């Protein structure tokens, strides 16, 4: 029964096409979140 489960041949198979490794993906994600936090902070300060 365990043999019925499909195991991906490469762990990088599920990555988006614009990154090569999971480490690069998570760095990009954290960078994007930091950018959003700063952008919303500037937006909030500007429109107070």
Automatic annotation (TrEMBL):
Keywords: Membrane, Transmembrane, Transmembrane helix. The keyword Transmembrane applies. This is Uncharacterized protein. The chain crosses the membrane at residues 25-47. The lineage of its organism: Bacteria, Pseudomonadati, Bacteroidota, Sphingobacteriia, Sphingobacteriales.
